[in-house]
## 1
Amino acid sequence: MPDTPNGLNRVLVVMAHPDDAEFGAAGTVARWAKEGRQVTYLILTDGNRGSSDPAMTAERLAQIRHAEQRAAAMKLGVKDVFFLGYDDGSLQPTLDLRRQITRWIRRTKPDVVMAPDPTRRWTGQRYINHPDHRAAGDATLDAIIPGSDTRLVFPELLDEGLEPHQVREIYLTGSNEPDAWVDISDTIDLKIEALREHKSQVGEWSELEQTIRERAADMAKGQDFPVAEGFKYFRLHE
Ligand SMILES: [Zn+2]
């Protein structure tokens, strides 16, 4: 893990869908929460398209997924969960989205922001990344620079009393080029428990659990701990 200075206590996790934070970073989130950091989730869409059940409606699915996300976050020790209510499957890195994320960065004043790596188009020969994930990553990075720290960007936020804020560290999830690894030995079981809360999304559970454990072991190769989550990492300010 990067040598994170003490005192970086506030963390904002910005993700496209309910369950993205758990898949990408629940072990790290749980570890930070145990260390006393205040972790807040900002979930951009309602995840209201993630079902092929003909009896399911988008409205009902949104309610289910909100509840699942809150339950998973509670397992990990996350302090607050906020939803922006964008439609699942059509997220775009618009100025409106950037302004909304900037507003939440200025409101919650995080030292650390976590978001998806927007440069991940695919991985290997079996995985094409969801466009919502890329949009969430793009909008969040743009909200950090030049959004949250630049006074005259989004002057309407100044009118709301939201002053500029400097984010110090960024952790990008799902990166093809991870360069920082967090030891999740003590929290991988919590990650599994949190993922289990996403009941509407997880079908064959035992297979998925095995995949998650194998991936965490793969990610730790070359580290001096057995299981890890990997991130593309930035330290913007000391
Ligand atoms: Zn997702």
Note: Residues 16-17, 20, 130, 133 surround zinc ion (CB under 6 Å).
## 2
Amino acid sequence: MIRSDLLKAMLPELIATRRDLHAYPETAFEEHRTSRLVAEKLEEYGLTVHRGLAGTGVIGELRNGDGEGAIGLRADMDALDLDESSALEYRSQHPGKMHACGHDGHTAMLLGAARYLALTRDFDGTVYFLFQPAEENMAGARVMVEEGLFERFPMQAIFGLHNWPGLEAGKMGVGKGPIMACADFFDLELTGVGGHGAYPHKARDPILTAAHLITAWQTIVSRHTDPLESAVISVTQIHGGRTSNVIPETLTLSGTARAFNPEIQDLLESGMRQMAECIAAAHGLNARFNYERRYLATVNTDREVDMAIVAMLETVGEANLRTDMEPTMGAEDFGWLLSECSGAYVVIGNGIEGSHGCALHNPRYDFNDDILPVGMTYWVNLVHSLL
Ligand SMILES: [Zn+2]
Ligand SMILES: [Zn+2]
């Protein structure tokens, strides 16, 4: 059980840290100020600090007793390329950058847990506090894994959390198995023969070919994928042509593909490539198709979900816990960590009204400071129950 007097005493610093991070948002792999602030605080609390993993990543290591057990708790530190529209006194001081996903809150909650556990040392084993860069767009977790996260800091399980607008503050949720989809990104360049819009027979038209292809790709979802599986192909950009009476020589298009099941992911990639090449060839064009698997699906492991449930029950009580959170086709780079280590990713309600209920990545969103103690308590309870 967390000591409520200590938690209460730590709360003002927790709120101040969260708002300070909010005022100075930094994006992928450029979280230098944030990283320095995190490392300095961890050192001040008495943890062993490892800097420089994935550039700006910071690992705080806290050992106690002689227990062999080790777990990792992860927070993301990065912000988004977005202009904040709020009148908050701690609004973003960095034009074009904003903490619109609440990673300022995630970082503050984990710092709070590190401070509490370093002070009380009421566990037996090792806790690694992972502060990672570049969750948004650039999959910083993948870079940490590639730079030897799990070899340098061996752990039996890893845990993550995300604030959840639309779920009441004070509630938590989790689901077993796949909870977030993979996020793959593709781009295609079609090259034909440019010509006069009045003489299409003398050209090889990439625009008409793209129209066929975009429609055909949707049959991968509707005709090639088992209807009981989930898959998404979204073409989100198409660029070609500059004037009304010229058939352009080239056209580019790009977008994103999502799935939970790696076999479906394989099907999406191979099916899209085959259709791009064959449909382009059928129209007398060349296709150059790139497909990047940037985020793996986030798949919770049953045992660790059960462990997280124990800690969540203690934190918010049965009436405030949802154990049936539905998976979403959104993505999270925590999937890279779960691809190497057992673990669970849970959500914590950010509220349902105003800036707290506002969707993530919206310029009016704000992390709810009222849930700082909830997240911090969850981390502490998790350590208590596991170590
Ligand atoms: Zn986000
Ligand atoms: Zn996020």
Note: The CA atoms of residues 113 and 219 lie 48 Å apart.
## 3
Amino acid sequence: MPLKPLTSLAPLAHRRQCQPCTACCDGWVRINVFDTPVLPGKPCPHSGGAKLGGCKIYAERPIDPCVNFACGWVRETSHLPDWMTPHQAKVIVLPAWTVWRTFEVDLALPVGSRIPFKSLQWLQAYSKKTFRPLIYTEQESDRTGHYTGHQRVNGYGPLTFQEEMIKLIGNKLVS
Ligand code: SF4
Ligand code: SF4
């Protein structure tokens, strides 16, 4: 199962404010901005990061994916606690990213190489409590520490979910 590009999420009301988070502009969610790929190690060229106030072309940013994108933390219906803002908890959650059998599956992407233990522990506990299988990824790096563009994909949930995921994803490395 390839990780599909995240370019067409429906607009959602925001309960929380993004600032100072800029994680989705900084390459931790794979998107294309004006045909330029944005991915780990390759932030959007229009992002100034938190220090420079985020998007440098905010008024002209594209509808898809930028205006339409809302991560799981910022959505009005968010189930994530306040402390799990992506830039602090180092994880971007995309709720109901896909469906396995009849279960909605959440996707968690690291802001950095790995999702920190505290954040992953919370997500796994939530998954167990609510019967929502979880997919979470880790960045692959080369010997020099640069991201290769591949991600290791992990499943958390029923054994059959994990078995079917491995069958679909093959060697668990996707680009
Ligand atoms: S990752 Fe979420 S909170 Fe952070 S800038 Fe993007 S939408 Fe906002
Ligand atoms: S154009 Fe602006 S809002 Fe869109 S990804 Fe780049 S920095 Fe973020």
Note: Residues 70-175 form one domain.
